[in-house]
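Final report, Chapter 2: Outcomes

The project's central promise was a pipeline that accepts a single protein chain and returns its three-dimensional structure in a standardized token representation, suitable for archiving and comparison. That pipeline is now operational. To close this chapter, we reproduce one record exactly as it appears in the project archive, with the input sequence first and the structure output second.
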Amino acid sequence: MAQPARMTSVFANFRQYLLGWETGGRPGHGVDLFRSGLATPQFNGVVRLASPAAAKATAVAAARRELTGVPWWWWVGPDSPADTAGLLRRHGGREVASLPVMIRSLARPAGPLPTQSGLRVEEVRGARRLAELVSTYRTSMGIGPALQDAMARIESRRADNGDIVRLAAVREDRVVGTTTVIAAHGVAGIFLVHVARAHRGQGVGAALTAAALRVGRERGMDVAALVASPAGEALYRRFDFTSVWGYHLFDFPA
């Protein structure tokens, strides 16, 4: 896949994941926007200006209006018009994070699935396991238990055309790690890689990453892609992921 086409596919996959947190239809206003209603910015925001020809100042004002009342981020990647970051700064935006986008070809396997004593990685099925999955990544993200039920409800209602695979690392019948794979646009997008604090440093993240890569290959995807946290970047490099692009996250202080 040529690099421009690969970038287009990767960011189409990321938009599909992020826009999946939307809880209802929403007018375009020149932006790709989602609002879960959850009181945490990971699940509300703008993915990009939908068109370089959009009335940019109007689009920024519309996004701020649509997202009033919830914390949110504006994701600026290479699929956004080149002047987006400057536009947001001029309208009060503040850059809060810069995160690498990493990719890996799926033409070759990830190698043997790492094995840890008493640990298995399985596909999440059923309401109980889904609730445990949400509880694990919610706690890892520092989100309080008050949002548990709403997060589980929204997670269960995500549009699924057969391209979502949720994986749980399980030890002693308890979920100790999570990830979600979106297999779409030729890309295995890897999201929500989280490990319960008491189980970190024990190979759980590696087992989840290897399992996600296996899902991508089984689904016939060309590449795997993810947005790396500072804590996870070294792990992904061990699996031959390479940083090729990045996201800049902006918020708008009240």
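Archive annotation: The chain has a mean pLDDT of 91.
This record, like all others produced under the grant, will remain available to the consortium after the project formally closes.
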